[in-house]
Specification:
Length: 280
């Protein structure tokens, strides 16, 4: 990898997880920064140059160079196409270890696939990672219009249907705190917020939210939280497809109730506990 060049791209602040608690002498800043760099890679952005990494993380370019050099030596990053980098095989091993630690994802697959096949949909099981939702399971039918997402795909918490499914399950105070912290920086939130507030009313009466083309015109989704043993949302389950077939009425009458039934079934396997005030 060539030494990174000075970037002309405005940098943005590094993710919150990079900064350790003030006065925490056990926190290793260099390790946190390396993990922040690895978190920049995604299926949509599999190769990133050094200058872009500096801009994405807000880290000084000499720091980015040293961290990337170390991760190249360890095999976690691989140089490609000039000064670009991509994740190495050891990252894949870590990903498999993560999925192995979420047995619900594997146990849910057959039932999620059956749901997808029944409605000509795509189903997804997502978990929150700070301000993102990460799919830990994803099943597709043979329908033509389906989102090009897979296991490991990351979507914004505040501006995705699966994120709305998770947010709907939080108590009002915690949901408001998450929105204040993660939604405000999202440029799509201001336009999407009225639709989100509307669909929260759906959740209050039906137990699921609907996203009617708010982010992808022509694509509608129903989603619901899957509660963990602490009574808080652990996952969100979504089911969506073409607006031609997945009309608002069809989502509310057919798809949404089945999403809730499967969510409740998965909760039982997870040892989950639904808040008493949650709709049934």
């Amino acid at each position: 990898m060539n030494r990174v060049r000075r970037s002309t791209t405005p940098s943005r602040p590094a993710p919150e997880r990079e900064a350790g608690p003030e006065g925490d002498r056990q926190f290793v800043t260099a390790l946190a920064r390396g993990l922040t760099i690895l978190g920049c890679f995604s299926p949509a952005r599999p190769e990133i140059g050094g200058s872009e990494l500096a801009a994405l993380t807000g880290l000084p370019q000499p720091t980015v160079w040293r961290l990337c050099h170390t991760m190249i030596r360890q095999g976690f990053l691989v140089p490609v196409n000039g000064d670009k980098l991509r994740p190495g095989i050891p990252i894949l091993q870590l990903g498999r270890a993560v999925l192995a630690g979420i047995p619900l994802a594997e146990r849910a697959q057959a039932r999620m696939q059956a749901l997808a096949n029944r409605f000509g949909s795509a189903t997804g099981l997502g978990a929150r990672d700070e301000n993102r939702m990460v799919f830990v399971q994803r099943c597709l039918s043979d329908a033509q219009l389906l989102m090009n997402l897979r296991i490991g795909s990351r979507l914004p918490l505040a501006t995705s249907a699966v994120g709305w499914g998770l947010l709907s399950g939080y108590e009002e105070a915690e949901r408001a705190e998450l929105i204040e912290r993660h939604a405000a920086p999202d440029p799509r939130w201001q336009k999407a917020e009225p639709e989100f507030r509307r669909t929260l009313q759906d959740y209050a009466t039906q137990g699921f939210i609907t996203n009617l083309g708010a982010f992808h015109q022509g694509y509608n989704t129903a989603a619901a939280p899957v509660f963990g043993p602490d009574g808080r949302p652990a996952f969100a389950l979504s089911c969506g497809g073409s607006a031609v077939t997945h009309t608002p009425a069809f989502l509310r009458r057919e798809v949404g109730p089945e999403v809730v039934r499967l969510a409740v079934t998965l909760e039982a396997e997870l040892g989950g506990r639904r808040p008493k005030t949650e709709p049934r």
